[in-house]
Structures are given as structure tokens and as C-alpha cells.
Amino acid sequence: MDNISQVIHNCETCAAIKQVKWVKALWYGGQWLKYRYGEAWQIDYITLPQTRQGKRYVLTMVEATTGWLETYPVPHATAQNTILGLEKQILWRHGTPEKIESDNGTHFKNSLIKTWAREHGIEWIDHIPYHAPAAGKLNGAMGYLRLP
Predict the structure, then answer these.
(1) What keywords would UniProt list here (predicted)?
(2) Coil, strand or helix: which one is 13?
(3) Exposed (0-12), middle (13-18) or buried (19+): which is 118, by Cβ within 10 Å?
(4) CA Rg value for the chain
(5) Which listed CATH number (3.40.228.10, 2.60.40.420, 3.20.20.70, 3.30.420.10) goes with 24-145?
(6) Which residues pair with 17 in a beta bridge?
(7) In terms of pTM, does the model score above 0.90?
(8) What does the alpha-carbon distance between residue 66 and residue 34 come to, in Å, rounded to a whole number?
(9) CA-CA distance, 121 to 123, in Å (whole number)?
(10) Predicted pLDDT of residue 21
(11) Would 134 disulfide with which of 66, 103, 113, 128, CB 3.0-4.6 Å?
């Protein structure tokens, strides 16, 4: 266990408010155990009721080791909006990740995304659609965003 996890685990205040969580591997077999914070993300779009600004889709991005959630509302789920959201919410705030995992949506699986990822040195991984273990922490985070 790394030092940060140990400090949080031993923190009396954290224990009192029950926010102590152990960092777990995201993939089967702990493939992301070697990564540090911000190096691996899972992304997908969620559809919500349209806002007054015309934004109906939300790009949801979950950091693999901690489950940290970033969101970026957009009017349309496109490759251009995906890149803009990734740059504003992940690259500018958390640095360039090593891996990004998504489903096989057309807004993720196209030449524009492939070129952008290659130019930034990011490995883009397509996970199994509609398969909860493959989506890891992403499905849990998206559940918080959906309306009842």
C-alpha cells in the first residue's frame, strides 16, 4: 500500500466520517496496479434532460485508481466534444494519462480520436459494451448522475 493510502487509512477524522477506502485494481488481474493517480481513465457519455443552454449529453470521466469523477456537458456526443472535454477536464487538470478506456461508440471509435490519442501518446482501449466488470468504476459513477 502506498503512503497516501496508509495516511488516509490511519486518519481518525477520515475513519470517523467513514470515507476511508482502499485503492483497488480496476481491471481483472490488477492490470492497472502499476499506475499512479491520473494515468488511467474510463470515459462514456450519459444522456440527461436538456439544459437551457441546449446541453443534453455529459461526458463522464472516471479516474481508475481513485474513482474521481470529472464531467463535461455538451449539446452533442461527438468526437470533437470528446476531445475538448478530455483536454479541459483531464489533461489540463490531471496531466496526460497513459490509457483511456471507452466503449465502441462512434464518438470514441473514429480516426479523429485515434489521431489525437496517438499525438498525445495515449493508449486508447475499447472495452466490452454492456459488460459491467469491463466498465469498472464508470458505471457506478454514472449511476450517481442519473435522475431517479
Answers:
(1) Endonuclease, Hydrolase, Nuclease, Nucleotidyltransferase, RNA-directed DNA polymerase, Transferase
(2) helix
(3) exposed
(4) 16
(5) 3.30.420.10
(6) none
(7) no
(8) 13
(9) 7
(10) 40
(11) 128
Question: Side by side, which strands form the sheet with 99-102?
Answer: 69-74, 57-63, 40-47, 99-102, 123-126
- In this prediction, residue 24 has a pLDDT band, given cuts at 50, 70 and 90, of very low
In this structure, are residues 34 and 108 in contact, taking their beta carbons and an 8 Å threshold?
no
Cell of 134: 469491463
- Locate 81 and state its grid cell: 466534444
C-alpha grid cell for residue 130?
A: 454492456
Q: Report the distance separating Cα 98 and Cα 96, nearest Å.
A: 7
Grid coordinates 480516426 are at which residue? Answer: 111
Band (65; pLDDT cuts 50, 70, 90)? confident
* 28-47 confidence digits (pLDDT tens): 445 545 567 888 898 999 88
Within 10 angstroms of residue 11's Cβ, the number of other Cβ atoms is: 13
Q: Where are the domains of the chain?
A: 24-145
CA dist., res. 3 & res. 54, Å (int): 44
**Residue written as cell 497516501?**
4
